[in-house]
Amino acid sequence: MYKEMKCKKCRKAILNESEVKQFVDAHNSKFDSDPEECDSIRNGTNVYLTTYKLPAWLLDQIDAENWTKGKIHCPHCQNKIGTFDHIGGQKCSCAKYELAPISFVKSKIDLIKNGTSL
Ligand SMILES: [Zn+2]
Ligand SMILES: [Zn+2]
């Protein structure tokens, strides 16, 4: 699966392998599950994280907003790469599932896959 997440702007590593392993889709399941009839998954522009084992830089940004909601910035170049929302209530397109609290915008990050990409 994925081994690393980098910032697309400064190209520095942001999340390591054990952290990107925790990514879930809009239905809170791992990516290798069957695609479902939900726009948030089919055309998903985000990847999601729950609050299990977050890196210190991300906890700092969430702590600064008292675990409410806010923007996530790259710890290296401060570019905006995602959002967090612990107030909740945000659902996916089919409205069956509540989105995980932390989301990264795919166009702002690079997900590096395991193995060589040809
Ligand atoms: Zn950056
Ligand atoms: Zn859905």
Task: Please explain how this structure is put together.
The protein is of the alpha+beta class and 118 residues long. It has one domain (25-107). Helices cover 14% and strands 28% of the residues. It has 3 helices and 7 strands. The strands form 2 sheets. It has a 4-stranded antiparallel sheet, with helices on one face. The protein is globular, with a radius of gyration of 14 Å. The protein starts with a strand and ends in a 5-residue tail after the last strand. The structure holds zinc ion (2 copies).
Helix and strand arrangement:
Elements (H helix, E strand, L loop, with lengths): L1 E6 L5 E3 L1 H4 L18 H4 L3 E4 L6 H9 L4 E5 L6 E6 L16 E4 L3 E5 L5
Antiparallel strand pairs: 1-2, 1-7, 3-6, 4-5, 5-6
The protein binds zinc ion (2 copies).
GO biological process, one term: protein polyubiquitination
InterPro entries: RNF180 (IPR033263)
GO molecular function: ubiquitin conjugating enzyme binding; ubiquitin protein ligase activity
